[in-house]
Design brief:
With about 325 residues, the chain is mostly helical. It folds into two domains: about 190 residues, no CATH class; about 100 residues, NusB-like (N-utilizing Substance Protein B Homolog, Chain A, Orthogonal Bundle), CATH 1.10.940. Helices cover about 70% and strands about 0% of the residues. The longest helix is centred in the first third of the chain and has 41 residues. Keywords: RNA-binding, Transcription, Transcription antitermination, Transcription regulation. Pfam families: NusB (PF01029). This is Transcription antitermination factor NusB.
Length: about 325
């Protein structure tokens, strides 16, 4: 689920938390990083489960409508297209998802089902829902496009759901953009001919998990030397004038230059420029690019960078 860029963002957030706290225990902060990444995965699973629970709420609504004393013909013969949505059924039937939810005891939507009600009511009253039910087309692609639409336009931007998640886990606020993007990518990749929906793991492989911890530890342990190098390239800047996030991104990038021989210099620079565009000031990417370009050339010249493999410089 987590890409290398996502991992860098989580390390950046943990670095920022470390610099803002009075705690200087790296082991404690490392455990916090690992915990926050695990909780981010919980949020991913809960978002998938929310789609299932909204479908279940729709089914409850239909069943209650059929039992009305003065049920209409529409109540007696409801449109079942939504509760029979093929993608939602695949998610609901996913053994891997259900096992993960049970193992992690993620029962939020059963305990706080009023938020499921809120989402269901917004879906039920939306034009896209009405048009979906009215459509005579019946295909996996249409079902998938509908699910993607309600997640993107109704679930992801819902303020009440946002407030609820904020109350549950403070770190989830920072995680939401990454998780929502991951959910959309996951849904878009799903195909009709795949027999069972398989839930991605938090890390693609063991190397990515180790990369997160090593990047965090090595940046912290060597940051004083990295700060000196940054100051040499910014003689007219007081270190306090450099934005906190910019300083952290520069130190992390220098760490990758020095301590991660398999990562190309260009990849490192491009990754941190993209993160800066999203998480720092409007001019940060230009500032960071200038510093990293100068430092990478200097490091190469002095042979401080030792990349392994073809095309890694």
């Amino acid at each position: 689920m987590l890409t290398r860029r996502h991992i860098r963002v989580k390390v950046m957030q943990s670095m920022y938390a470390f610099t803002q706290s009075a705690n200087d225990n790296i082991i404690v902060e490392q455990k916090f990083l690992q915990k926050s990444m695990g909780e981010m995965y919980d949020l991913f699973l809960l978002n998938l489960d929310l789609l299932v629970q909204v479908k279940n709420k729709a089914q409850d609504y239909i069943e209650k409508s059929q039992k009305k004393h003065l049920a209409t013909s529409e109540d007696k013969n409801p449109n079942l297209k939504f509760i029979e949505n093929s993608l939602l059924l695949k998610i609901a039937d996913s053994e891997s998802l259900n096992v993960l939810l049970e193992d992690k005891r993620l029962t939020n939507w059963h305990q706080d089902d009023e938020y499921v009600n809120i989402i269901w009511e917004e879906v039920r009253q939306s034009e896209v829902y009405k048009n979906y039910l009215a459509s005579e087309v019946s295909s996996f692609q249409e079902d998938k496009e509908f699910v993607i639409h309600i997640f993107k336009e109704i679930i992801a931007p819902n303020d009440k759901l946002y407030d609820y998640l904020e109350d549950k886990k403070l770190t989830w606020l920072d995680d939401l953009p990454i998780v929502n993007t991951s959910i959309l990518k996951f849904l878009k990749k799903e195909k009709d001919d795949q027999l069972e929906l398989k839930i991605p793991k938090l890390f693609k492989n063991r190397e990515d998990e180790e990369f997160a911890i090593e990047l965090f530890r090595k940046t912290l342990l060597n940051q004083e030397a990295y700060v000196e190098d940054i100051q040499e390239k910014t003689p007219n800047w007081d270190k306090d004038r450099i934005a906190g996030i910019d300083s952290i991104l520069l130190k992390m990038a220098i760490c990758e230059f020095m301590k991660f021989p398999s990562i190309p210099v260009k990849v490192t620079i491009n990754e941190y420029l993209e993160i800066a565009k999203e998480y720092s000031t409007p001019k940060s990417s230009i500032f960071i690019n200038g510093i990293l370009d100068k430092l990478s050339k200097e490091y190469k010249k002095s042979e401080k960078i030792n990349k392994i493999g073809r095309g890694l410089m």
